[in-house]
Amino acid sequence: MIVDLTHTLSTTGPMSAWPGHPTYSAVQTCCIPPDPSNVHAISLGTHTGTHIDAPFHFVPHGAKVAELDLALLVARAVVVDVRGKEPCGAISWGDLERWEAQITEGVVVIFCTGWSRYWGQPDYANHPYVEVEVAEKLVARGVRVIGSDTFSPDQHQNDRAPDEVHRVILGNGGVIAENLCNLEQALDLEAPTISLLPLKLDAGDGAPVRAVVWSP
Predict the structure, then answer these.
(1) For a Cys staple, 116 with which of 38, 65, 142, 149, CB 3.0–4.6 Å?
(2) Which one of the record's GO molecular function terms can you name (predicted)?
(3) How far does Cα 175 stand from its chain's mean position?
């Protein structure tokens, strides 16, 4: 079973975009008929829709998307169920207790908050966030990739400690996947593998991905 964790980029459907970031647009440049084929010109930001953040997003000399070790991005996943958090609620290390034995070097830790149900709505911005202690403990265990069904793993509803989780994960050569969806369908998968392969962008502080997860 393959679960698609990717929001559809749409010019007509719901979309959530970080304030100030480019959104998605598509313009048809060739059309059947009279042209022999259909072609579109698309425009989007490196952090539009379901995407990953490379270290270069926050680290001046960090790795760019085209330089990432792809083995980081196709790996065993641990999907942590943290649904039921209040808006802007904190995800603590205690919330990971049930999965702690599975969190070992090289796994991808994914936080299922259920917040993708608010995609395209104002409430999407009021997502739960990961406490920086969680990021630090994950890095200490050899985890370099995390993801969630939210704008960000960080708290952005006030000015306290902005982007701390980004700085811990990306500062240790890791990767963050954001705006995932359908994570509820991945909770019961046995020994799941996740793929977060991005567009190969040489100027890549981030890039859209077609995120999927599956069981053997």
Answers:
(1) 149
(2) arylformamidase activity
(3) 9
Measure the CA dihedral 64/66/67/69, to 10°: 120
Q: Which of 34, 30, 69, 5 is nearest to 208 (CA)?
A: 5
140-188: pLDDT as tens digits: 999 999 999 999 999 986 655 589 999 999 999 999 999 999 999 999 9
pTM of the predicted model as reported, rounded to 2 decimal places: 0.96
Which domains are assigned to the chain?
2-7+46-214 (3.50.30.50)
Give strand pairing partners of 208: 51
Provide the token pair at 33: 């008929």
Q: Is 92 left (phi over 0), alpha (psi -120 to 50) or beta?
A: beta
Q: Which two tokens stand for residue 128?
A: 């739960």
Q: What pLDDT score does 162 carry?
A: 81
